[in-house]
Amino acid sequence: MEIIFEYEEKGNLEINSVAVIGSFNNYDPAQGSMIKEGSKWIFKCDLLEGEHYYKFLINNELKLNDPSANVYLPDDNEELWSVIIINNNNQRLYNNNQYTVHVDSYNVTCNINEEQKAVNKKIFNVLLDKKIVTRFGFTNVSGLHSVTTAWFTPKGELYQVVENNLFATKENEKDPILMWFWMDLNNSHRSNCGLWTVKLFIDGEFVLEDQVRLLENTSYTAQGKMN
Predict the structure, then answer these.
(1) Which of 52, 61, 158, 181 could share a disulfide with 149, CB 3.0–4.6 Å?
(2) Which residues, in sequence order, are CB contacts of 40 under 8 Å at separation 6+?
């Protein structure tokens, strides 16, 4: 069965290459190299009966799920993948359920906390702060979702990618679900002071972008404003 994969450029990403990596091509980007047509990247291939796990690999470094996928399933390591299912009649199967997720709150701090009103911070000190923490509150969560944060240096280079699974349980289905993603600060950041960018993706879909300033200074207030 011929399958057409499409990835549409969004989220101010500077994209030089996109590949489909999956169980059907040994997760080899060379076997899934996509061709750019306008603002979309395209890849066509024939798939046989079975469950086919895949993701998009952006610039050979950023791995994201397919936002248009109809099925997402975890592998043996609990990593969530986009999945195409083809039955023995060469028909593609679809999930008829509609799953939702809403970003209810977002904060940037220097520590992990569950306070309802966390103090937002936009300036960090590489000498004094140990980490930059982004905290997200999610509501209306149904189904299983992959949440990905990507940190970019002031030069626009990808520095760190973290992905976690998001799902509601009977205990928390009515309350906001909090998730923390952080970047530890160390001596290597002293040569990368400036404006850092963090991007949030849910199921591979670009959701939001924010920036924080990283400085090397010995005097600043708790709110991140320089004295």
Answers:
(1) 181
(2) 6, 7, 8, 9
